[in-house]
Amino acid sequence: MTRRGCFITLEGLDGAGKSTHAGWMADWLRQAGVSLLETREPGGTPVGEQLRTLVLHQSMDLRTETLLMFAARNEHWRTRILPALERGQWVLCDRYTDASFAYQGGGRELGAPAVRLLEDWVQQGQGPDCTFLFDVPLETARARLQQGRDTADRFEQEGAAFFERTRQAYHARVAEDQARFRVIDARQSIQDIRVHLDASLRDLLRTHGDPAMHRRVQDA
Ligand code: TMP
Questions:
Q1: Ligand 1 centre and the CA of 41: distance in Å?
Q2: 217 alpha carbon to ligand 1 midpoint, in Å?
Q3: Closest Cα partner for 109 from 180, 162, 46, 178?
Q4: Does 102 sit in the ligand 1 pocket, CB within 6 Å?
Q5: pLDDT category, 2, cuts 50, 70, 90?
Q6: In order of start, what are the domains of the chain with their CATH numbers?
């Protein structure tokens, strides 16, 4: 079967504020008439959610960590994301493979080739149609992260150098595939960010939606 829905992913450092916008984007798309699967990684399936608990809280070797991210992803991709896209649903996923390139490949210094190997094996040339990267300088991300959190997971506990490498690896992904990425300057106010998101979502409806969805948004 061929993919008919649009696959959108959200990326950024911990503290970039992406989760604040995920719910708003999902509401926007549903109001435009899109049948939507809203999900996240690691997670999104019963197996994936168990792996999430393990990988966020249990210390382990870097290769084990990377394999578990991709084990969760394989389950998610094959049992939920791909079937939804084939049914014509859209998928909005909070993090996907770019996070493995950024965190394992960059932050933990595994390097991109090992991550690419697993990406090719699991995804077989398929991936997101559009990725929003919520980009903030390190200091902003860390300041936001410290607000209102009492228990940090294994990634949130990492130091500044880790997050600097992670951010650089995200930017390397953008440089490789500029057509797919929309980089959002997440230092802006929530309202200003929503203006950009609104324009980008309208664009996506134009290129990937059916004409009725597009009309509904034009009339709004
Ligand atoms: P979240 O807090 O945005 O849900 O993400 C959980 C953490 O998992 C976050 O610190 C980034 C990390 N992560 C990876 O290290 N590699 C991955 O492939 C994914 C999807 C997430």
A1: 7
A2: 33
A3: 162
A4: no
A5: confident
A6: 7-219 (3.40.50.300)
